[in-house]
Amino acid sequence: MKKLITDSKKCTGCQACMIACTGEHYQIYSTENARVKIVKLEDKGADIPIVCKQCKNAPCIKACPVAALFKNEQTNATLLNEGECIGCGICAEACPFGAIVLDSNEYPLICDLCKGSPKCAEICPVNAIKFEDTNKLVEKKRNKLAERELTKNFKKWGITI
């Protein structure tokens, strides 16, 4: 399964991801109504990309009183049935990551993964947002941990590599 993965250490705050998002969804190039947001922490000198984590047991879906949110079986994206949505905003309140924002009409803007090809990840010039297979990520982390453990043991045994 593929998910959007962010690396805030790499984010420069350029907002290209937000512009690509609105371009894809509204054919305008703006940061308004983007489904990905960059939070600027001026005092820390950091820019943090906020994206939908496409939670397995999505709190936003569970919280929706009219069942307007659902999972796309093919992309695993959380989608909105606009005809069912009453604009209550409970889904935004339920999101633990603050990834759901409301538009000017109080309807949720939720990442739909651009039908399986997220433009934010494609456009990011520094790879602060990537669309990756989570199984491969787990394997990379496992290998990194194993390598670190091996290096630590080699040092303990007096072996240099």
Poorly predicted tracts of residues: none
Tell me the span between the first and last alpha carbons.
Answer: 36 Å
Oligomer: single chain
Total of helices:
5
What does the overall shape look like? globular
Instruction: Please outline the major beta sheet.
Output: 2 strands, antiparallel
Mean pLDDT: 92
Strand tally, please? 8
Strand order in the largest sheet: 1-8
Beta-strand content: 15-25%
Succession of helices and strands:
EHEEHEEHEEHEH
Textual characterization of the structure:
- By secondary structure, this protein is an alpha+beta fold.
- It has a single domain, classed as Alpha-Beta Plaits (2-Layer Sandwich), CATH 3.30.70.20.
- The strands form 4 sheets. It has a two-stranded antiparallel ribbon with strand order 1-8. Strands 2-3 form a two-stranded antiparallel ribbon.
- The protein is globular, with a radius of gyration of 19 Å.
Features:
161 residues; two-stranded antiparallel ribbon; alpha+beta; globular; two-stranded antiparallel sheet
Give the structure's gist in a few sentences.
This protein has about 160 residues and is α+β, with helices and mostly antiparallel strands.
